[in-house]
Specification:
Oligomer: single chain
GO molecular function: acid-amino acid ligase activity
Distance between the termini: 61 Å
GO cellular component, one term: cytoplasm
Shape: globular
Family: Belongs to the IAA-amido conjugating enzyme family.
Protein name: 4-substituted benzoates-glutamate ligase gh3.12
Number of helices: 20
Organism: Quercus suber
C-alpha cells in the first residue's frame, strides 16, 4: 500500500472511534438485520420470536441470554458433521451466510481446541479489513519501508489442516490466508523463508529452516515477527542449542540431514545459494561467545524491531525476550480473537504492562460484564460501550457478524482511558471458567514472580514455565503447581535435592501470599488442602506442546496452559515430576 492508502485507512479507523455508542448501535442493527433475512437463524428464533426485526439493543440484551461456547457446540458439531443447514427445518443454525471452514481456538487449558465457524460474511470482511490494514498502516508509519533492507524473519506456520465429516476444512485463523482458495501469498513476499517452509508439517523442522533462512539473509532482515512471545522464546532456545549445526549448514550450503521434508529442504537449499563459508564464520564467532544478551542485533545488524503478542499470559516471557533483543524495540500485537477483531494497538512500542487496545466499534457489538478479582460473583448484568467506567474490569461479551450472539469471549480487560469515545483497555487475563475456580491467571503469575525472586537469590534458578491444577477429586480439594526451571539449576541436581526441598518449603509464603483472597479464605477454613509444588523436568512443557499439536492444536497459535482443566494434561505433567513438596503452611 502507498502513503495515500495508509492515510485513508487510518482516517477510517479514526472516524470509527468517534461517537462509539452510535457506531455500536449501527453495528448491532446491521448484524441483526442481516441475520434475520429469510426467516433468520435458528439459534435466535426462541428468543426473538414475536419481535419485529431487527430488534433494538435494549430488547436484544433483555431477550437473548449471555452465552458461552457450550451453548453453540451442538449447532457447531451438526454443521461440522452434516453440513451448514438443518435439513428438517431448512433454516440456518447460526448465520445466513455460507459456512466456509472452521478455525481452531488458541486456548490451551484442554488438549482439544474449540471449533469456531467461519462464515462468508461481506460485512465481517469489511470490518476485519479496516482492523488488519489499520494495524499494518500504523506499523508502516512507525517503520517506513526500506528498499534494500526489506525482509522479515517471520516465524509463521500454515499448520496442518483437517477435514470434518461434513467436508469442511479446520485450521488456525492465522493459516486461512495461506489455505483458502483465494490464497494471497503477496502479503508474505517480504518473508525471508520460502513458501515451502511455511507450508511444512513439522514445527521443529520449520522453525529451524525459518532461522536458517533468516541467518542467510542476515543483512536484509528489517524485523522479526511471530504470533506470540512463546514462539520467539522457542526460537531463541533453538538458536542456543543448534547454532553449531546452523553454522555447518551455512558453510556447506545445505540444510541438516535431520530435515526430512524433501520439498522444504530443496527450497531452503535454493535460498542458501551454495556454501557461505564467510557468513558461517562470522555467525560462529558471535555464537561461540555464548553471550546471548543482545544477540538479535549481533546476528541481524539492520533489524529495527521484533513484534509478537506480549500481553496476558505472554507477559512472563517479556524480560527474557528483552534480554535477547538488547536495544532492538520489542513491539506488541493487536487484540484480535478467532471470533472477531476486538481492539487495535495504536502505540506498539509500549511494554506489555502499559499496552492499551482501542476497541473497534465497527468490528462487533460489545458488552461488558463487570468483574472483580477475589469476588466469586459480580453479577450477570452487562453494560454497553457507553456504560464502562475507567479503572474497572470487565469480561468482554461480543455479538459478531459470524454467528455468535452475546458470547462471553472469556477475556478480562480493564478500562484505562478513552480514545475519542472508544474505550481503551488493557488485557488482564483469561476469565475463570466457573465460580468454583479459586485462583486466576493473574494470581498465578503474581505468585510465580514472587517465587522467582526467592529462588533466583537462593538457588540461581530461572523459571521457564508453570501451570496450576485444582484437584477437586481429593478431600479436601488441593491446588497443585507444576513449575519448570531452566537446565542447570541447583533445584534439579540430585545431590542438592534435600536442600532444594528445604528451600521450596521456605518459599511457601512467597507463593501463597500472592494467590488471592478466595484461596486464602478457603485455606483458613480447611476447605482447601496444603499447596503442592512440583518441579518438572526441563523441556516438559515443550513436550506437552508437541502432544497438543498432535491432538489438533494449531502450532502457530499454541499457548502453554496456565490454569489446567484437563486430566489428560495433569497425567502428562505428573509423569514429568522431579520433586514435589507439600507446603503445610
Amino acid at each position: 500500500m502507498n502513503l495515500t492508502d495508509d492515510e485513508e485507512i487510518l482516517k477510517k479507523l479514526e472516524d470509527s472511534t468517534k461517537d462509539a455508542t452510535c457506531r455500536q448501535l449501527e453495528t448491532l442493527r446491521s448484524i441483526l438485520e442481516h441475520q434475520s433475512k429469510g426467516g433468520g437463524v435458528r439459534y435466535l428464533r426462541p428468543y426473538l420470536q414475536g419481535y419485529d426485526a431487527p430488534v433494538d439493543a435494549n430488547t436484544f440484551r433483555r431477550a437473548v441470554p449471555l452465552s458461552s461456547y457450550e451453548d453453540y457446540v451442538d449447532h457447531i458439531n451438526q454443521m461440522a458433521n452434516n453440513g451448514p443447514v438443518d435439513h428438517d427445518h431448512d433454516q440456518p443454525l447460526l448465520s445466513v451466510d455460507p459456512l466456509i471452514c472452521f478455525f481452531y481456538s488458541s486456548g490451551a487449558s484442554t488438549m482439544k481446541p474449540k471449533l469456531i465457524p467461519y462464515f462468508d460474511s461481506k460485512l465481517s470482511r469489511a470490518a476485519s479489513f479496516i482492523a488488519h490494514q489499520g494495524s499494518n498502516a500504523i506499523h508502516r508509519r512507525l517503520f517506513p519501508p526500506r528498499p534494500s533492507v526489506n525482509k522479515v524473519l517471520w516465524f509463521i506456520y500454515a499448520d496442518n489442516i483437517t477435514t470434518t465429516k461434513g467436508g469442511f476444512k479446520v485450521m488456525a485463523a492465522s493459516s486461512y490466508p495461506m489455505h483458502s482458495s483465494k490464497a494471497n501469498w503477496s502479503q508474505l513476499v517480504s518473508s525471508s523463508s520460502p513458501r515451502e517452509v511455511i507450508l511444512g508439517s513439522n514445527i521443529e523442522h520449520q522453525m529451524y529452516c525459518h532461522l536458517l533462512c533468516g541467518l542467510r539473509n542476515s543483512d536484509s532482515i528489517d524485523g522479526i515477527r511471530a504470533p506470540y512471545a512463546i514462539s520467539l522464546m522457542n526460537v531463541f532456545s533453538l538458536l542456543e542449542s543448534k547454532w553449531e549445526q546452523l553454522c555447518d549448514d551455512l558453510e556447506h550450503g545445505v540444510p541438516s540431514s535431520e530435515i526430512s521434508d524433501v520439498v522444504m529442504k530443496d527450497s531452503v537449499t535454493e535460498v542458501l545459494g551454495g556454501p557461505q563459508p564467510e557468513l558461517s564464520r562470522r555467525i560462529r564467532v558471535i555464537c561461540e561467545d555464548k553471550n546471548w544478551g543482545g544477540i538479535v542485533c549481533k546476528l541481524w545488524p539492520n533489524v529495527r524491531y521484533i513484534r509478537c503478542v506480549t500481553t496476558g499470559s505472554m507477559m512472563q516471557y517479556y524480560p527474557r525476550l528483552k534480554h535477547y533483543a538488547g536495544e532492538v524495540p520489542l513491539l506488541g500485537g493487536d487484540y484480535f480473537a478467532s471470533e472477531c477483531c476486538v481492539g487495535i494497538n495504536l502505540d506498539t512500542i509500549q511494554p506489555p504492562e502499559t499496552t492499551r487496545f482501542v476497541l473497534l466499534p465497527t468490528a462487533a457489538y460489545f458488552e461488558f460484564l463487570p468483574f472483580a478479582l477475589d469476588e466469586i460473583n459480580v453479577g450477570e448484568e452487562t453494560v454497553d460501550i457507553s456504560g464502562v467506567e475507567e479503572g474497572k474490569m470487565y469480561e468482554v461479551v461480543v455479538t459478531t457478524y459470524r454467528g455468535f450472539y452475546r458470547y462471553r469471549l472469556g477475556d478480562i480487560v480493564r478500562v484505562v482511558d478513552f480514545y475519542n469515545s472508544a474505550p481503551q483497555v488493557e488485557y488482564v487475563m483469561r476469565a475463570p471458567k466457573t465460580s468454583s475456580e479459586i485462583i486466576t491467571e493473574k494470581h498465578l503469575m503474581s505468585a510465580m514472580e514472587s517465587f522467582q525472586r526467592v529462588i533466583r537469590k537462593d538457588m540461581a534458578a530461572e523459571i521457564s514455565e508453570f501451570a496450576s491444577f485444582l484437584d477437586i477429586m481429593m478431600s479436601p480439594k488441593h491446588l497443585k503447581l507444576y513449575i519448570e526451571v531452566r537446565e542447570g539449576s541447583k533445584l534439579l541436581q540430585e545431590e542438592k535435592l534435600e536442600e532444594s526441598v528445604e528451600i521450596l518449603k521456605r518459599c511457601g509464603s512467597s507463593i501463597e501470599d500472592s494467590l488471592g483472597g478466595i484461596y486464602m479464605v478457603q485455606r483458613k477454613r480447611g476447605e482447601l488442602g496444603p499447596l503442592a509444588v512440583s518441579i518438572v523436568n526441563p523441556g516438559s512443557f515443550d513436550r506437552l506442546s508437541l502432544v497438543a499439536i498432535e491432538n489438533g492444536a494449531p502450532a502457530s497459535q499454541y499457548k502453554p496452559p496456565k490454569i489446567i482443566r484437563n486430566r489428560q494434561i495433569v497425567d502428562f505433567m505428573e509423569r514429568c515430576i522431579v520433586v514435589t513438596v507439600s507446603l503445610e503452611g
